[in-house]
Design goal:
116 residues, alpha+beta, 4-stranded antiparallel beta sheet, 34% helix
Length: 116
């Protein structure tokens, strides 16, 4: 579920710039999720702990709740499986001034957020 178009969020201009830059790099992306409710974050946090499925988040205090983060997927399955494509996406996002989850100890390659 994407909350991208639900309202004007602090991350919106960065989402637009990232999508444009990725398309220019011939690696189009779709935005998977931007804003989350606290309830959705609790559901995701429960996954792999008290609910079925793999662990997908390590926090109840995600920047998604405040509209300061987004997750993306490559449109092409080939890019999804290409390590170089992920590195290019990380470079593009960092070039926009975003923090990339791919640089964290527990990587989240699909995630960008505004720095604190």
């Amino acid at each position: 579920m994407s909350w991208f178009h639900s309202s004007s969020l602090p991350i919106d201009p960065f989402v637009d710039s990232f999508k444009e830059a990725m398309a220019d790099a011939d690696m189009p992306v779709r935005i998977a999720e931007v804003r989350r409710t606290a309830e959705r974050q609790r559901q995701l946090y429960a996954q792999g702990r008290t609910a079925p499925g793999p662990v997908v988040t390590w926090t109840l205090h995600s920047k998604h709740i405040r509209g300061r983060a987004f997750d993306f997927d490559f449109v092409s399955a080939g890019d999804q499986a290409d390590d170089e494509a992920w590195l290019i996406a990380g470079e593009i996002g960092r070039g926009l001034g975003l923090t990339w989850g791919g640089e964290w100890g527990v990587q989240d390659l699909r995630h960008f957020e505004l720095p604190d």
